[in-house]
Write a structure and sequence with these properties.
Oligomer: single chain
Order of helices and strands: EEEEEEEEEEEEEE
Helix content: under 10%
CATH class of the largest domain: Mainly Beta
Number of domains: 2
Number of strands: 14
Length: 190
């Protein structure tokens, strides 16, 4: 880059009088151009580069709403939405945000609802709920079941809402009386 000496009352027009890439140390960004939908990031102490701006973005959403009454007397987990919901992550770095809600009709005993991955419960405080009944048959709404899962794959994976009852002689039903079981999967860019 060639510089021309100017007088004390003149200024340099950086739009028309400077060409090439202005180094970071001299107030530039160190690159000649960027790419659409990308942002600048530091790659070292004085080096900038453009990078994709998609971390944390929702890449896809799939949802299953089930209004069919399903029941079980089993003390082991069984599907509460009539089959698993599948999602295929677009990158291995993606995470899957699972949000579930379901209504349980419980005559007596203790019932459980949980989120399952590939058929097995993801047992954490945010992915399971238990309801202890007072001996009266009632409907119980279980909402706020959620989990951020890292499957680390681009293979199709399945998630489900599962239910069980600790008393084999009673029936847990979901959904019932016009209620719904809802399972939502969101792929979040990692």
């Amino acid at each position: 880059m060639a510089l021309t000496r100017i007088g004390p009352n003149q200024s340099v027009n950086l739009t028309s009088n400077v060409t090439g890439t202005l180094p970071v140390g001299n107030g530039g960004i160190g690159i000649a151009s960027g790419t659409t939908d990308q942002f600048l990031k530091f790659t070292g102490t004085t080096t900038l580069a453009s990078a994709a701006d998609n971390v944390g973005k929702i890449l896809q959403i799939v949802q299953k709403i089930d209004t069919t009454s399903r029941s079980t007397t089993s003390s082991t987990y069984t599907s509460g939405i009539g089959g698993a919901l599948q999602i295929t992550p677009s990158a291995t770095s993606s995470k899957i945000l699972i949000i579930a809600s379901v209504t349980l009709y419980i005559p007596s005993g203790t019932a459980y609802a949980t989120i399952a991955y590939q058929g097995s419960s993801i047992a954490t405080n945010s992915t399971s709920a238990f309801i202890v009944t007072d001996g009266n048959s009632r409907y119980y709404s279980v909402s706020g079941l959620h989990f951020l899962h890292s499957p680390n794959t681009t293979d199709t994976k399945s998630y489900d809402i599962l239910m069980k009852n600790t008393n084999n002689s009673t029936t847990v039903e979901t959904p019932n009386s016009g209620s719904q079981a809802v399972l939502t999967l969101m792929e979040i860019a990692g």
